[in-house]
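User: Is it possible to get a 3D structure for a protein together with its bound compound? The compound here is zinc ion. I've pasted both below.
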Amino acid sequence: MSLTLYALGVAVLLSASFFYLFGYRSWRRRRVMAKPFPADWQTILDRDVWVYRHLPEPLQARLRPLIQVFLDEKRFYGCAGLTVTDTMRVTIAAEACLLILNLPLSFYDDLRAILVYPSAYRVPDIHREGEVLSESSGVHLGDSWQRGKVILSWEDVVAGAGHHQHGHNVAIHEFTHQLDQADGSADGAPMLRSSNALRTWSQVFSKAFDNLQKTLEQGHSELIDPYGATNPAEFFAVVTETFFERPRALHREHPALYRQLQQFFDLDPLSWTRAGD
Ligand SMILES: [Zn+2]
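Assistant: Yes, that's possible. Here is the predicted structure of the complex:
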């Protein structure tokens, strides 16, 4: 009898946890998305987020509720004395949600906190050579951690969000790492729709990664930032910056890469940039 009661208790607890994890989350998301988009957030998008002004209207309409959910679920923390404002939260959320306009919201389920520094910040970098560990201090514009954290320099977020097309966008870079990490490993290959797609993705990306390394070794310059040659995860993040910032150039110089990113994000930034951009 007591065993039956115990089993019943466990079953009730499991169903409650299941509802909390999945049912409650989607119920709350639907509720948040149904609320009107705040007028002062709209002003921030129109004034400060270049890509929002250039998106076709149907994509703008998809982006706004995603921003509402993102801001409902993620916590922002100011670092080095910074007070986080709505301008910072809305701008960062807009760049993050641009990436998941046509992807499931669940890509950001593990992301909990965004830490914002006023500008580039120093962090200790640990290096290992054999058994010897050494520590130096590096200047970072942003970081993405596996345990649900993104760190950003606000000054550099503004530089990226204020005007796409110069090729650099730290927010897009760090949130791309989060998409990459959503399947548990930061390896430059996010969750794709089929294993067939993964095979093509791997072929196209490893070829382009090797080519970038060779080009840089020969001392030539490349459209793709040299930092992309660090490893496949950085390559994916850097190429995604180029995809959203300089789609025309990426499409011209690396059509196969462009096509893979277009298929994964289910977006075509070429269609919302003018010729010559
Ligand atoms: Zn990176």
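The CA atoms of residues 145 and 178 lie 8 Å apart. Strands lie at 75-78, 113-117, 121-129, 132-140, 142-145, 149-153.
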